[in-house]
Amino acid sequence: MVDLKKNITEVKNRIARAAERCGRSPQEITLVAVTKTIPVERINEAIQLGIQHIGENRIQEAREKLPKIQDNVTRHFVGHLQRNKVKYAIKLFDMIQSVDSLALAEEINQRCVNSGKKMPVLIEVNTSGESSKYGCEPQETLTLLQAIDRLPALSVQGFMTVALYSEDLERVRPCFKLLKSLFDEAQNLPLKNADIKILSMGMSSDFEIAIEEGSTMVRIGTAIFGPREYAEIK
Ligand SMILES: *Cc1c(COP(=O)(O)O)cnc(C)c1O
Question: Do 34 and 77 touch, CB atoms closer than 8 A?
Fold first, then answer.
């Protein structure tokens, strides 16, 4: 059985050590526990143990689980969002991290305007160049940011990426460097609604180098909950 308390402590310690190694404060880094495939009871246990942010990647699963999750937690959507699921996403989540097209942003905006909401979002960028990954192209990111900035019900708070998966972390690092450089460039743009402060990058296999490269939000599943058992969820 996975020892949640031990794993959460260990992850927090690793975040703190990585931050200190590069002269950053551990407080700058938000831990999002990615709870996809994890049963409600385990998620609530993690919240009892101090987890303040959770991430889910499928709307169907979130619709089943989130109503049973304790409400003292911030809910992030980190998966690919289809336009026909936006109506659920804006009800279920406090932040959508995976906006990667103007069409999707416009759909979220329209739904939020209709229900009098304002939705914090991140723009997902494909930093690895892999066609299997979601996200907008790096070179179109700032144009997309400026277009989304005009939508009144959205507030862009930064960028998110899923880096290349490789055992060789030095091949992963350039993905993080690329996102950080876009983040720095975005600081110089004249923006209305946006407040670019979150750099959501780093997962179980690579969060320490993501922190070295400037991450302010890491999304950790396996290192907290153990390996996922996909067979259990249909
Ligand atoms: C599953 C997932 C994570 C967490 O992955 P682990 O390798 O289990 O830490 C982070 N971000 C996204 C977008 C995910 O889908």
Answer: no
